[in-house]
């Protein structure tokens, strides 16, 4: 079904009166009037009208016209009308136009000859074409190239008809002679394509005899040569593969970028030798740096990624060339480059890669860079991945990245602090310098999430006396003077923050509100903060260090609870490393004062929202901890948290390793596979590329590299029965889904004793599917079969339906018979594949996506983990929740699933289930996506599959 269009072009589908007006204009009008009437007639025909009464009028009054526009419209009219009767024979009226077409083919005007020859390419009636063949062949030697190129196309179209070899039996010989003397690029290309399609041996012979001159041919002909080489090497033996590779190598330096691109692809398809792969990769990299179109860059990166999948060892050498594509301003290009580079990291190139990324991070500090914050976030994530895989490079970048803890892009700052947290655990040698750097830059942090993580790092990894004292002093400085607000009996507002030195360019903002005291009297409570009026504040000034104070006064009591926990850990560690009890007690008293001030602020009426119960309980726990500390509790607070974090990192690394092992393709050679021994072969006349290719092919044969990945059982599962066994025509389809294309290979079997004529497979689609072309008619002999292929385009991840009929005629019954086909449901599982994303990214997408589909749990499965595994298997999604979080038996289970479609759509699923007292499972499965189609389709799939246990 066609998609609705927002642009409505009005055209009156007309009536008999309009047909009469057209007829009158054709009979009595001049050239422009006849042209206008022909346009209206063509528009009516395209809108479904038949207009049979106009044919004779057009034959009488339009055929003799010498106006070029009228003649061109006449050919369009003849192309649109139905030229066959119900029996499939050409209409007798078509004989009337044969003389006109012959006159056009012999016209002194080159344009008339050319458009007529182009029209003949669309005719399929032998009765009309047979008288015109001599004129068509005569145009092969015309002096004008415009006519010659269309004459070759007409000869090719006629020869490829079902009985075309009888109309022009010597067509390949005529075309080959013309090709030998032709000079026009388009005519040579058309002639060469005709030989490729109709006489492949002649085309191959012509190519090999002119192999030395292929580099001098026009780019149109070079593209045709590459297509022929691909076709020959797929269908025939590779006896001349070395000569083909030589031709392709010579074309790698062609001036046309299209030819160079196709050469690289053809070279990889012909040869697996490292030299060939390296040449193709270098070609792609050169195009990547020379082309400015972002779509071209994305396509080239996809080709490089395909090479990386099959030939990673060779691709490692071009990683620096790929990195130069980061100069593109497009974020999608940058993201693909960084993903590709991450897959090509080795111990040899990781230092160069990280150094290059470090320079890119420095460039993002320039304010003129568009979307610099997002690009910086991508760079931080890439450097993080590099440092996790190769910890030795972390020291060269971690201090630079810590300057961005106060970045205005909160996502980038969060990525930096998570990177710091992981590196400080995995690289003990960098701990001291990183803690000192974090203490020095802590006052720059403005985001609550970054502050929380940074405080946790200070509480866990400040181990020496100086580090603990510096961390406590930094936290106190960022909190400012206590209390956070003051209450005066006289109702006057006092400033609770008293700077020790004058603050430049700052304004004191005081908030006051009335409050009732315990004795019933009224007072005024106020809270004062320092706000910066201009950005030019000295780093050491008080106003620039009150980041924790401003966040807590904004009502962020979760951060306040983190501050309390961090101070508790620092005080407990200070008691271990500080020999003086006086200093320890002083630090403990100061921490208790901060906690009680936070509790006092949270329970006051100054803030619109009081402190939440969780934060209150956490802070009270910290107060009790500092007042009465036992050895067991001290061990939990000072050691268990870090041990849990180390365990989480180890589990994460283990999961990534297991995923890489699962992705690794394991191939085996069959016992009867042929192995050619390279050392016993003759090397005479073979180039270096051919020698390498022989070795590589032998290795692939020995290791099973040529074995197909697809399993025969999976192929059988994709065969769908379209008709019944008792129907006169039996049909079944093999469905192949490849990204945006669906290919239906339909096998049709005539189960009758009669010949079926004009058998046609009529298909229609529902959903975001579109039939590319209508299959042609066939004639089936008794009990014979036919393979019919139909191509369907897919535009979104929605469950579509393909339905249709098989229509045919028999010689006994003149009416058409119809066999209704079973519907073909295109499954959404063919479009989505498991994917992985960070927890932060998942939560951001969950909050951003607007489409949600909520499915209630309704299953006979009684085990939570079994139900989760069943949903994962049914939806082809990836479980992001680590196995350690799913361990244990508590009667509850919550897990996040993620998948990505071939169209780039994200599918998010959250499963929350509870086991009831009767043993049944209850809960909900929530699906969120950016588009409605994937949310609804995935919900229908889950609803259908969740009840079963298989």
From TrEMBL:
InterPro entries: ARM-like (IPR011989), ARM-type_fold (IPR016024), Clathrin/coatomer_adapt-like_N (IPR002553), Coatomer_bsu_C (IPR011710), COPB1 (IPR016460), COPB1_appendage_platform_dom (IPR029446). It is a peripheral membrane protein. The keyword Transport applies. Keywords: Cytoplasm, Cytoplasmic vesicle, ER-Golgi transport, Golgi apparatus, Membrane, Protein transport, Repeat, Transport. Residues 815-942 form the Coatomer beta subunit appendage platform domain. GO terms for biological process: protein transport; vesicle-mediated transport. It is found in: Cytoplasm; Golgi apparatus membrane; Cytoplasmic vesicle, COPI-coated vesicle membrane. Pfam families: Adaptin_N, Coatamer_beta_C, Coatomer_b_Cpla. Residues 21-472 form the Clathrin/coatomer adaptor adaptin-like N-terminal domain. Residues 671-809 form the Coatomer beta subunit C-terminal domain. One of its GO terms (cellular component) is Golgi membrane. Its main location: cytoplasm. The coatomer is a cytosolic protein complex that binds to dilysine motifs and reversibly associates with Golgi non-clathrin-coated vesicles, which further mediate biosynthetic protein transport from the ER, via the Golgi up to the trans Golgi network. Coatomer complex is required for budding from Golgi membranes, and is essential for the retrograde Golgi-to-ER transport of dilysine-tagged proteins. Oligomeric complex that consists of at least the alpha, beta, beta', gamma, delta, epsilon and zeta subunits. PANTHER family: COATOMER SUBUNIT BETA (PTHR10635). This is Coatomer subunit beta.
């Amino acid at each position: 079904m066609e998609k609705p269009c927002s642009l409505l072009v009005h055209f009156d589908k007309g009536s008999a009166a309009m047909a009469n007006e057209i007829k009158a204009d054709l009979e009595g009008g001049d050239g422009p009037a006849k042209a206008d009437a022909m346009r209206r007639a063509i528009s009516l025909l395209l809108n479904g009208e038949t207009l049979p009464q106009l044919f004779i009028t057009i034959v009488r009054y339009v055929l003799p016209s010498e106006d070029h526009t009228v003649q061109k419209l006449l050919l369009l009219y003849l192309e649109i009308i139905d030229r066959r009767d119900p029996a499939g024979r050409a209409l007798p009226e078509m004989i009337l136009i044969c003389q006109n077409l012959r006159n056009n083919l012999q016209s002194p005007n080159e344009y008339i000859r050319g458009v007529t020859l182009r029209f003949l390419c669309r005719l399929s009636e032998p009765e009309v074409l047979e008288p015109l063949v001599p004129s068509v062949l005569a145009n092969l030697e015309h002096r004008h190239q415009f006519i010659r190129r269309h004459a070759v196309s007409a000869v090719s179209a006629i020869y490829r008809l079902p009985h075309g070899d009888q109309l022009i039996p010597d067509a390949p010989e005529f075309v080959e002679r013309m090709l030998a003397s032709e000079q026009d690029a388009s005519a040579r290309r058309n002639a060469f394509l005709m030989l490729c399609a109709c006489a492949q041996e002649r085309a191959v012979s012509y190519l090999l005899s002119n192999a030395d001159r292929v580099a001098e041919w026009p780019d149109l002909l070079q593209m045709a040569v590459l297509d022929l080489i691909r076709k020959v090497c797929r269908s025939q033996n590779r006896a001349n593969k070395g000569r083909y590779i030589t031709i392709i190598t010579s074309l790698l330096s062609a001036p046309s970028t299209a030819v160079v691109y196709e050469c690289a692809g053809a070279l990889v398809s012909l040869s697996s030798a490292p030299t060939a792969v390296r040449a193709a990769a270098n070609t792609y990299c050169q195009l990547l740096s020379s082309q400015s179109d972002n779509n071209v860059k994305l396509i080239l990166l996809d080709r490089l990624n395909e090479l990386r999948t099959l030939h990673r060892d060779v691709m490692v050498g071009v990683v620096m060339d790929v990195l130069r594509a980061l100069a593109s301003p497009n974020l999608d290009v940058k993201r693909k480059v960084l993903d590709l580079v991450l897959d090509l990291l080795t111990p040899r190139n990781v230092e160069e890669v990280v150094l290059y990324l470090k320079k890119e991070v420095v460039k993002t500090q320039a304010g003129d860079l568009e979307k610099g914050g997002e690009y910086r976030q991508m760079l931080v994530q890439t450097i993080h991945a590099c440092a996790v895989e190769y910890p030795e490079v972390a020291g060269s970048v971690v201090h630079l990245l810590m300057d961005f803890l106060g970045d205005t892009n909160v996502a980038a700052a969060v990525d930096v602090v998570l990177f710091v947290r992981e590196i400080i655990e995995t690289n003990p040698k960098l701990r001291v310098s990183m803690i000192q750097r974090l203490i020095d830059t802590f006052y720059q942090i403005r985001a609550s999430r970054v502050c929380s993580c940074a405080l946790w790092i200070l509480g866990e990894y400040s181990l020496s006396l100086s580090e603990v004292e510096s961390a406590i002093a930094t936290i106190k400085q960022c909190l400012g003077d206590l209390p956070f607000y003051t209450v005066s009996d006289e109702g006057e507002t006092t400033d609770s923050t008293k700077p020790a030195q004058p603050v430049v360019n700052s304004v004191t903002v005081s908030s006051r509100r009335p409050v009732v005291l315990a004795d019933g009297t009224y007072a005024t409570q106020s809270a004062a903060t320092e706000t910066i009026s201009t950005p030019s504040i000295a780093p050491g000034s008080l106003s620039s260090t009150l980041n924790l104070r401003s966040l807590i006064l904004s009502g962020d009591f979760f951060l306040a609870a983190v501050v309390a926990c961090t101070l508790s850990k620092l005080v407990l560690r200070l008691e271990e490393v500080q020999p003086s009890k006086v200093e320890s007690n002083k630090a403990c008293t100061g921490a208790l004062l901060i906690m009680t001030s936070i509790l006092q602020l949270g329970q006051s009426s100054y803030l619109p929202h009081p402190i939440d119960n969780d934060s209150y309980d956490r802070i009270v726990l910290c107060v009790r901890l500092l007042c009465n500390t036992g050895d067991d509790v001290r061990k939990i607070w000072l050691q268990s948290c870090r041990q849990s974090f180390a365990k989480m990192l180890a589990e994460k690394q283990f999961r990534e390793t297991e995923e890489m092992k699962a992705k690794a393709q394991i191939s085996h050679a069959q016992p009867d596979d042929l192995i050619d021994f390279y050392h016993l072969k003759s090397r005479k006349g073979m180039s270096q590329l051919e020698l390498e290719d022989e070795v590589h092919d032998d290795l692939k044969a020995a290791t099973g590299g040529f074995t197909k990945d697809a399993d025969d059982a999976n192929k059988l599962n994709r065969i769908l029965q379209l008709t019944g066994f008792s129907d006169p025509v039996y049909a079944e389809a093999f469905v192949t889904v490849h990204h945006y294309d669906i290919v239906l290979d339909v096998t049709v079997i005539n189960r009758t004793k009669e010949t079926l004529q004009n058998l046609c497979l009529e298909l229609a689609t529902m959903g975001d599917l579109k039939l590319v072309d209508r299959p042609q008619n066939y004639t089936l002999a008794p009990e014979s079969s036919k393979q019919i292929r139909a191509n369907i385009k897919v535009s979104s991840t929605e469950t579509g339906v393909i339905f249709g009929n098989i229509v045919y005629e028999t010689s006994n019954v003149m009416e058409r018979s119809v066999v209704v086909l079973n519907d073909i449901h295109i499954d959404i599982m063919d479009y989505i594949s498991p994917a992985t994303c960070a927890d932060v990214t998942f939560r951001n997408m969950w909050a951003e996506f607007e489409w949600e589909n909520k499915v209630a749990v309704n299953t006979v499965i009684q085990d939570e983990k079994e139900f989760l595994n069943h949903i994962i298997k049914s939806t082809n999604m990836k479980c992001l929740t680590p196995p350690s979080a799913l361990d244990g038996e508590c009667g509850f289970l919550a897990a996040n699933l993620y998948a990505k479609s071939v169209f780039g759509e994200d599918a998010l699923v959250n499963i929350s289930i509870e086991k009831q007292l009767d043993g049944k499972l209850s809960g909900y499965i929530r699906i969120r996506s950016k588009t409605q189609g994937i949310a609804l389709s995935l919900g229908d799939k889950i609803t259908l599959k969740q009840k079963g246990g298989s």
